[in-house]
Amino acid sequence: MTILALEIGPTRLAGIEIADDVGSDRVRQIPVPEQDAWGELRELLLTIAAGRDVVAVGIASNGPIDMAAGVVAPAQVQEWQSGFPLVESVQKLFPAATVALALDGVCLSLAERHFGATQDVMDSLAIHVGETVVGGVMVGGFVVVGRTGNAGQIGHVLVPGYDDPCDCGGRGCLESVIGAAALTKWAQRQGWGGNSIATLVADAESGDRISVAALERAGTALGRAIASVAPLLDIDRVAVGGPIAAAGSVLWKPLQNAIAMHARLPFLTGLRAMPSELEDLGLLAGAGVIALTSQGE
Predict the structure, then answer these.
(1) What φ, ψ does residue 250 adopt, rounded to 5°?
(2) Peptide bond before 64: cis, by omega within 30 degrees of 0?
(3) pTM of the predicted model as reported, rounded to 2 decimal places
(4) At CA 13, angle to CA 16 and CA 43, rounded to 5?
């Protein structure tokens, strides 16, 4: 019985077979293709399946999605902008399989709930900060999906005190401040000479003034966004993953300070933000959860 998990991310298409003790060394991935995305994805899935009978496929996709229709339109895949019938296409590839689709943030939240930092709480927020800002919400132990399947996108929560233009067309979105491209561009405008989040984090840890300022700015913005969402949802745990989460106190001190300053209501006294331990397996792990769940329906 072969069960697959698939990730449609902002920089990669990735897949893995769900099995006991599976690790990141088993992930197959390719960069997001500039053309023939389905053809490349099809080959990736067939390689992982290796001719075996696939009984379920779980898909975590960057949004927007139409979960009921099984259609995705992630911004990074240009030829899918009018909507691509991903569930139907995967179903044709594996006719005997149950195919389940969810937003990447939904899958991230499920992964943290089952395997990560929110296992012991019922109400939580999971965030991954990379090229995009992925978010997922748990309330009462159940993941919040939303009317179209796009709930949880904290990357487009407005952050007080910021007016940066966002790719969505708005201004002041969290993603426009702390997303990888936005964060590195801000640092470059201040005179920093690097070009990647990994370098920015490393330079900050070495004490580079501009890199430190960039991550302090990101931590403050993220803390304010968390403090804005927390009273609406009455959450008590936030898991933060992605490259900047490894930045140590440079990021986490301003983040925690912003939460402490703004999340002041009495019922939020137990609110905690902490680093995720899922690394780059979070979305695939969540996709595996929805694949396994679909088998029991």
Answers:
(1) -60, -40
(2) yes
(3) 0.92
(4) 75
Pair 89, 100: CB distance under 8 Å: no
pLDDT tens-place values along the chain, 297 residues long: 899 999 999 889 999 998 777 677 788 999 999 899 999 999 999 999 999 999 999 999 999 999 999 999 998 898 999 999 999 999 999 999 999 999 999 999 999 999 999 999 999 999 999 888 999 999 999 999 999 999 999 999 999 888 999 988 999 999 999 999 999 999 999 999 998 999 999 999 999 999 999 999 999 999 999 999 999 999 999 999 988 888 788 899 999 999 999 999 999 988 999 999 898 888 999 999 999 988 765
